[in-house]
Amino acid sequence: MKPSAHLVAIGVLCLLPAIQLGSAPVLAEHPGSPARGLAPVLPSFLPACEPLPPRTQFFPSGETQPTDRARDANVEVFLAGQSPAREHTVLGEVEVLARSHRTSLNNLLDSARREARKHGGDALMEVRPRAVSSAARAPLVLTAKVVRWS
């Protein structure tokens, strides 16, 4: 199976911090050293690299027309069991599936907020993160209701 072009591009972008293009040499310059002038490749950055972004789906609850909100618009988060005091209308439900066990809960929440903004949401309610399976390194899935303040 051949990797797609976008996966290769993401991999290269993840490697750029380790290559340190255009920076001063990190290793001491010893005459005759094969690594003379080269920056060492640090393997510590690789676990932080998320090669596959989460998959996000939106399931509308009715005949609402999506009204895109600004990229920096605030989207409040209410976990399961919490409820806002404000009146609201449910626009639909969002499901965010991590495609890697390295994807953090914060990354899933960011993806859910982006999706809520695309559909005019002001908040995420009944946010429920859970593991996809019982395996030790199972990826997470997050579900939430997208609501608009009335």
Care to describe what's here?
The chain is an alpha+beta fold and 150 residues long. The chain has two domains: 44 residues, no CATH class; 95 residues, Selenium-binding protein (Dodecin subunit-like, 2-Layer Sandwich). 19% of the residues lie in helices and 26% in strands. The protein has two helices and five strands; from the N terminus they run αβββαββ. A five-stranded mixed β-sheet has the order 1-3-5-4-2, with helices on one face. β4 and β5 form a beta hairpin. The chain is globular and about 45 Å long. The protein starts with a helix and ends with a strand. About 18% of the residues have low confidence.
- Helix fraction, binned, reads 10-25%
> Mind telling me the CATH class of the largest domain?
Alpha Beta
Q: Spell the H/E element sequence.
A: HEEEHEE
Low-confidence stretches: 19-30, 33-47
Number of domains: 2
What is the name of the CATH architecture of the largest domain?
2-Layer Sandwich
Whole-number average pLDDT?
78
Give the termini distance in whole angstroms: 50 Å
CATH superfamily of the largest domain: Selenium-binding protein
Task: Give a summary of the structure in a few sentences.
The protein has 150 residues and is of the alpha+beta class.
Layout: helices, strands, pairs:
Elements: H1 5-19, E1 55-60, E2 76-79, E3 88-97, H2 105-118, E4 123-131, E5 140-149
